[in-house]
Amino acid sequence: MSATALVLGGSGFVGRYIVARLVTDGWRVVVPTLRRERAKHLIMLPTVDVIEADIADGPLLHQLASGATVVINLVGILNEGARGDFRGAHVEVARRVVAVCREAGVSRLLHMSALNAGADAPSKYLRSKGEAEAIVASSGLAWTIFRPSVIFGREDSFLNLFARLEAILPVMVLACPDARFQPVFVGDVARAFVQAIEDDRMHGQRYSLCGPRQYSLRQLVAYAGELTGHDRPILPLGAALSKLQATVLEFLPGKIMSRDNLASMQLPSVCAQAFPPIFGFEPMALEAVAPEYLPGQRDRYAGLRAHRRR
Fold this sequence. Notes:
- The chain contains 13 helices and 13 strands.
- It is an alpha/beta fold.
- The protein is globular.
């Protein structure tokens, strides 16, 4: 019988890639989700069990973890709101996962964090991620923590967001235009996670994951527009107007940006060194991947633009 991985947050953007890679490598995968219909992309995969479950239910989570070889915690939110708050999504989930691993006898734990997570970070998001890291690191389990920069890929909510906005707006009014990122490909993140499961050298280690090149936010927005044929003028905002924009957007549906997001961007989301050599591969460049999926936004909004011109 194949080994079993319990993947929390497995139906999300990064999770779908990790689950697919686990399946390819012969793992049985269990993915709990609040709404099973939202995980249709996983249900058809062989050896994947998508189970409608609330991971806040301790006894049920214990049942799901029993017999697992590894637990992978990908649960997280970028903004507080209907989906919960940072403390609940990051800190309390980490605490619950550690407790369940101990009770169920699962020694291997992989945990998703973020670059710049820490107790002294400028945003609630990063501070909660740092607190969750501390819980995992003091667990006594065979843990590995991953700290990626912004993650890009076909289903991302980063480059795709810029492309959608540029398709309908004549000008991009941009807060924090000089914020720096080192985007990493979702496939590379998934590969690193799965490699780490059975590599004892990675026990008790934290790995920062970045792509090969750094960009300013302004450069990324301009690149998304170039690829989709919506190369809009960019109006950069200073600190005061950036905060005002974030404050307004925070209260609009969809919450494109919040003041906490703005606080996170005060720290460069970049790596001090290249992709960790222990993984044995070079990360994919943004320019090698984004042209395969962003141009699809060109036609997606053609109808909307035509309607707006009437």
